């Protein structure tokens, strides 16, 4: 399994839900919370997105930008954002290039079926573009609090 901790984060450029280009390179100087989730509007993904939403102000105070990534199209992201009033962008990764670069596009098993999909994961990328911390195979409960605590502990 790929381990990115301490490495330069894989660069990417893609569209967000509004069709705007988002590039990791453009976010240098800020901390980035890059979280990968399987699918808009599903129970676990909704809980995770709402937990990030509820803590958004705390992340912002620590100079951190939250970006969610899934294989869903921009139109689906817009519905998800509107329905749950998400204050951060969701990135389009329909060809799963970003997910593959971060090693989260993997073989999954569910009810005896095997398929490729995104393994729920979060990456904390520092102002220089280095992966400071990674969480893989994330369980949603208490995850956002853990990410926030890690960020606070690293703050000057």
Summarize it.
29% of the residues lie in helices and 29% in strands.
Describe what this molecule looks like in 3D.
The chain is of the alpha/beta class and 156 residues long. Helices cover 29% and strands 29% of the residues. The longest helix has 12 residues, at 43-54. The N and C termini lie far apart (32 Å). The model has no long low-confidence stretch (mean pLDDT 95).
What's the β-strand tally?
A: 9
Helix-strand category: alpha/beta
Instruction: Enumerate how many helices there are, as a single number.
Output: 5
Gap between N and C termini: 32 Å
Strand arrangement, major sheet: 5-4-3-8-9
**What is the N-to-C order of secondary-structure elements (H for helix, E for strand)?**
EEEHHEHEHEEEEH
Mean pLDDT: 95
**How much beta, percentage-wise?**
25-35%
Unreliable residue stretches: none
Q: Please summarize the sheet with the most strands.
A: 5 strands, mixed
Q: Tell the overall outline.
A: globular
Radius of gyration: 15 Å
- Helix share, percent: 25-40%
Topology (elements, then pairings):
Blueprint: E1 13-15, E2 21-23, E3 31-36, H1 43-54, H2 56-61, E4 64-70, H3 74-84, E5 89-92, H4 97-101, E6 105-110, E7 113-118, E8 121-125, E9 131-135, H5 143-154
Parallel strand pairs: 3-4, 4-5
Antiparallel strand pairs: 1-2, 3-8, 6-7, 8-9
